[in-house]
Structure formats: structure tokens, C-alpha cells
């Protein structure tokens, strides 16, 4: 028996289907970054995901903090009762550019197998390859949920110019985390800075999130390849860091002598030191000291001597005044133990730094 065509009913069905499709496509998605096959189907990574050549390194950069940390070995499970947990933050020198996972600073600290407060220390590599104090603070704030007993924060002058704090892609693409830090720590950063990427309604929908969803899937797929090979970075031949400099090249960003402390993000540093979830050892990381042409003007590619010397003096005064546990390791590594940059160390250079850090650590026991 043929059903009589009913126009109003057909229109209602059509409208219903239309609304279902619109809701599926346009409804803002929850963050799916915590859904991860790491630490279950395959091991957690010893360093945060980062890379520009995923087809060879089985690693790549993304901006989802949940996904990044979910792929890290620190998310493997509850903190063991007998573990003294030490989180190590910093730039590419901590992450380990041109270093295999077992050669990084954190790995060498672990190899020394120290014990504190009656527990075995385990050091986690939470460095990330960009240089900005705000980036370190954001990662530190996120990592508070992992119950650290001690933090080691390696930094350098290049992390502090105010005008670069929000330009780092990882920071720029986590505007809500930056907003929370500005409010929590009263940071001198502008939440209206155009560098911050603020997704609108459509950017948060299934259509708008298609790139991020693809990244989450790729991170899982590369995880399987990484677990099978252990490869998370390519190691191409590289040029030695610059040691000769042009006449009169004494620039540091747009600053001139004397070094104006108000142009540096010392307030971001103080926020990290004062709001950290555990005691911090602050380390002024090693830099290469050039012996080439005009090395009396510049230490290296990053730093003219006037700026770096002033920074070290300012940091020492601040650390003494605030009672920070501070290690100035700027010149402890010989220039022969740097790789492609004035801050990237060889495995032997990392050994020198690891021993200095172990000697300076002053863990406090409950």
C-alpha cells in the first residue's frame, strides 16, 4: 500500500536531518588530546614531540599540550611511591638537539642514579626547542599535575626579551593557557597581543579542527614507528657555530647599552620561581665563548659581551635578593663541546653540565 506523500512531514524530516548534520559539523569539539596510545600500546616518549621532518624522524611539532604530555613517559601512570621526581625545563639544549635520547642532560642525570630523601631520583626531560621564558613557565604550570619534588630550570638571556615572549608558536597557539598565567601570576604580557591565536566558534568545530585532529592521529601513527625504531630525530651533518663576527656587531635584539632590565621578562622568571609546584634549581646554561674575529665584542652568535655580562650581573643580584637556588654555569663547558649552536652541547658537554647540576642540587625533604 502506497503511503500518501505528506509535504509538511517531509519538510520536518528534512529540517531534522539538516540540524543533525549542522550539529555534527559545527558543534565545538572537546579536546581529544588526552586520548593516546602512548604509555599503553607503545612506550611514552622520553622527550616532548618536536620535529620538522616526520617521515624520517617519526616525530613532529604540534601545539596541543594535552597530546604532547600524553605522549611523554611522565604520563605512564601514577607517581611511584619510591620516586623522587625531578622535572627539567629549558630550550633545545635541554630537549637535546643533535643528541640521542640517552645522551641528553636528563638521561645523563638519570645515569648518575642519585637518591634524595630516601628515594631514587628520576629526571624527566620537559625541555622544548624554542627560547622564551613564557614558554617554559607555561610548560611548568601544565606539569604541576605530575607532582614534582624538584624542578631544574635552565635558561639564558635569549629567553628574556619581552618582545618575543608570545611569538613562540607553542605559546601563541595556547592563548587560554597564557590568559590563565597572566591572571594567576600578574604577568606583564598583553592578552590582546595579536601574536596569540584565538580560535572562534567555527575554528573549534569539526571542520575548523580538522588539522588538529589529523595531527593527533599522526602523532599516534608515528608513535608506532618510533617505538619500533627508537628514532625521534635525524642527525645530519651540521656547520660549526659561528665564531667570527662583523666589525661593530654589538647588537642584542633592539637593545643598546646599558641593558635595561625593564625590557626583559624578569617578572616571568620570578613568576616561575615563586609559583612553581616544587623547589627550583635555576641554571644559567652554558654558552660557547668564541675565540674568533671580534670575539672581544661578542661571545657568540646570540650575545654581545656588554649585554650578556650585564644580564649575568642582574640575574645574580636578583637570585641573591630572592634567595633562589642558582647555578651560573655559563662558562663551564669548553667551546670544543658545542655542536651547531652556541647553546647546543655534545654528549661530553652534557656530562660536564650534569655533574655541575648534581653538585648544586639542594633538595628539601618533607
**First-last Cα distance:** 82 Å
Structural class of the helix and strand makeup?
A: alpha/beta
Tertiary shape: globular
Strand content: 5-15%
Query: How many DSSP helices?
Result: 12
Number of strands: 6
Furnish the topology, listing elements before pairings.
Layout: H1 7-26, H2 54-57, H3 65-70, E1 83-89, H4 92-95, H5 105-112, E2 115-116, E3 119-125, H6 133-143, E4 150-155, H7 169-172, H8 175-185, H9 210-229, H10 266-275, E5 280-284, H11 305-322, E6 325-328, H12 347-360
Parallel strand pairs: 1-3, 1-4, 4-5, 5-6
Antiparallel strand pairs: 2-3
Helix pairs in contact: 5-12, 6-10
Could you write a compact summary of the structure shown?
By secondary structure, this protein is α/β, with parallel strands linked by helices. It has helices at 7-26, 54-57, 65-70, 92-95, 105-112, 133-143, 169-172, 175-185, 210-229, 266-275, 305-322, 347-360, and strands at residues 83-89, 115-116, 119-125, 150-155, 280-284, 325-328. It is built from twelve helices and six strands.
